[in-house]
User: Fold this.
Amino acid sequence: MSGLLGKIASGVLVTSFVVIGAAVAHSESTGNADADARIATMKQLGGHMKAVAAVAKGEAEYSPALNKNAAGIKAIAAGMGDLFPVGSGGEKTRSKPEIWSSKADFNKAIEALQVASAGLEKAVATGDRGAIGQALGATGKTCGGCHKPFRKPKDH
Ligand code: HEC
Assistant:
């Protein structure tokens, strides 16, 4: 009997943890699934860039695993146009309306990242720190090249 109660009690405990976890995640949601997915992907992109930067700065050893980060950046760049469906902007996101009203310029900003990330992939494949650093700088410029005109400041 007490064993059963224990099981029930721990079941309740687990359930309440899940609920708390969901509540926390929900408070960070924009309320728009497309926007949430976009922001999550941008965070992944930032993570890949950070991994490459650590090697470029000499804070981490080069390893072939870095090719996966480079491939990840390139893949996200390739799919970036799909991250901004019409109707996924709004107050709770940092996406400026110009993304949809100046589509040609926005697409150019995506293309710039696509070109740079292809160069980064090649540089990472060489394993040469100097080359990686240079290509990383060029890629980072394209992040800013889009964020500046098309992303709202953090405390918008
Ligand atoms: C073509 C435009 C564009 C490019 C290129 C771009 N971003 Fe973004 N990024 C955005 C926009 C717009 C947002 C705001 C998204 C939102 O809140 O709806 C954003 C948001 C982010 C965020 C914030 C996520 C959060 O916590 O809210 C990070 C991190 C990020 N980008 C990293 C990068 C990195 C790193 C690169 C370059 C490798 C990059 N982005 C390239 C448009 C771009």
About this structure: Confidence is low (pLDDT under 50) at residues 8-27.
